[in-house]
Amino acid sequence: MNRSRLASLCLAVAIAAGCAGDGTRETEFQDLFLPRDVDVVEARVPRNATLQGLLRSHPASSDFADSIVTAVRSVFDPRALKANRPYAVMTSLDGLFREFRYYLDSDRFLRVALREDAASEDPSFDVSLVPIPKEVVPAAVDLTITQARPSLVAALQEQGENIQLALLLADAFSGEVDFNSDLQDGDRFQVLFDRVLRDGEFSGYEGVKVAVMQNGGRELTAIRHVTADGQTGWYDADGRSLKRQFRKSPLDFQPFVTSSFSRNRLHPVLGVYRAHRGVDYRAAYGTNVLAVASGTVVSAGWAGGAGRRVVIRHAGGYESAYFHLSAFGSGIRAGVRVDQGQVIGRVGNSGTVTATHLHYELKKNGVHVNPVTEHRNMPPGIPIPADELPVFLEARDRLMSHLHLTLSPAPSAPAQAGPSGQ
User: Fold this and answer.
1) Residue 99 bridge partners (DSSP)
2) How many Cβ atoms are within 10 Å of 297's Cβ, its own excluded?
3) Which of 93, 97, 307, 314 falls between 20 and 30 A from 24, CA-CA?
4) From CA 302, how far away is CA 300, in angstroms rounded?
């Protein structure tokens, strides 16, 4: 076929496709190639950035930075901007600002949109906190601690879950179980929780509803319950609070206690026998260190061989101390009030140490005590009020039934008879 005939054929095909087809085909062609009407720049907030500086770093939003910051103050504190959170700047194809989004968390984003009727010399914006659509799906796991899976994290990961669910469980049982040392081979967990999906993809956990733990021959139940005054807490099957005055550990969970409380221990650096007035936990550098109880920070600074140290005063004459930190928690300084479970620092190797670890001490009325044995003597938390107990027991029975039903395998379908009836 010569070039002339080939060109004529191509032209005929093109005309037929554009003119001879039905109207639907032409519409599909036009829809497929509709041009974009906006450009989107997606990024994450840099460290030490301000909202104003972030907006000025993009040409489209630079001129509006001051106006946007003023506008968002009605729904969002610009000083609450957090590093590494995702954001987006949307512009028209000619580079004009249209919209800014900042994702506060997995549930909401801040939206700032330029009003269509806004004057260029006096721009105005629509500002709102927009919920991110999500699907909450009930789920349950049944897992066992073994030599092959000696930690809660490992056991959960084998079932396709992640460390966030382990953290939720650690919080539920924090007053009864030290996940650093109490887990044993054969311990079992049955957990009912909500999994969050966004666009069909896993996004996180809504929370644990009920968990049953078999640990060293004892069975512990943790039920999340909201009391009549709006307080959320963890309770056992009889309505007794699982939250004691002190957590059993200043870490969520790590597998090793490297040195226990002792009146006479050989110091690994100084080479002399001396009292070891606390507990040493081996943990990864940067692991969160949590306040074992609510209280007031007495000191947060350098303390010689103790390195970076935080000391907290608690009710009942107690005082806790956390040594060798790599960093202090946000806002941690002398005089600040902290809550139980709040991050007050991170594991490190500052001061006189041979390896990265956390040294944790507890005093009562000025005298060092063994944190492990002292915890056993502390009374349990406040139980469900008597007038609310019937409501709690009804919720308990419903959750336990749901847990067992979710964990029960679905009945297998009856075998279908073949063509011959066999």
Assistant:
1) 90, 113
2) 21
3) 93
4) 7
Runs of H (alpha helix) within 38-180: 51-56, 59-62, 65-72, 152-158, 163-172
pLDDT tier at 409, thresholds 50, 70, 90 = low
Q: What pLDDT was estimated at residue 328? A: 97
Contact between residue 241 and residue 233 where contact means Cβ atoms under 8 Å apart: yes
Output the pLDDT for position 177: 81
**What is the widest separation between alpha-carbon atoms in the chain?**
103
In CATH, 135-235 is 3.10.450.350: yes
Query: Do 135-235 and 256-376 show the same overall fold?
Result: no
* DSSP H or E segment with residue 14: helix 3-15
The two tokens of residue 113 are 């949109």
For residues 357 and 198, is the Cβ–Cβ distance under 8 A? no
Predicted pLDDT of residue 127 = 95
Question: What span, in angstroms and rounded, lies between the C-alpha atoms of 400 and 176?
Answer: 20
- Its CATH class, for the domain covering 38-131, is alpha beta
For the question of whether the overall pTM of this predicted structure is more than 0.70, the answer is: no
304: left (phi over 0), alpha (psi -120 to 50) or beta: left
Instruction: Please report where in the chains the tokens 């630079």 appear, as a residue.
Output: 62
Of 238, 211, 213, 215, which Cα lies nearest the Cα of 224?
Answer: 211
H or E element that contains 256: strand 256-259
CA distance 210 to 346: 30
Beta-carbon count within 10 A of 23 CB: 7
* Residue that the structure tokens 């609450």 belong to: 80
Strand partners, 91: 39, 97
Residue 14 CA to its chain's centroid (Å):
57
Q: Tell me which residue of 221, 215, 225, 223 sits closest to 253, measured CA to CA.
A: 215
The whole-angstrom separation of Cα 208 and Cα 172 is 8
Task: Report domain 256-376's class.
Answer: mainly beta
| Phi-psi label, residue 222: left if phi above 0, alpha if psi -120 to 50, beta otherwise | beta
Residues 6+ away with beta carbon under 8 Å from 212: 189, 190, 191, 219, 220, 221, 222, 403
Query: Would you tell me how many other CB atoms lie within 10 Å of the CB of residue 49?
Result: 17
Amino acid found at 35: P
Nearest Cα residue to 306 out of 365, 244, 352, 237: 352
* 387's tokens: 């007038």
Domain segments of the chain as ranges = 3-31, 38-131, 135-235, 256-376
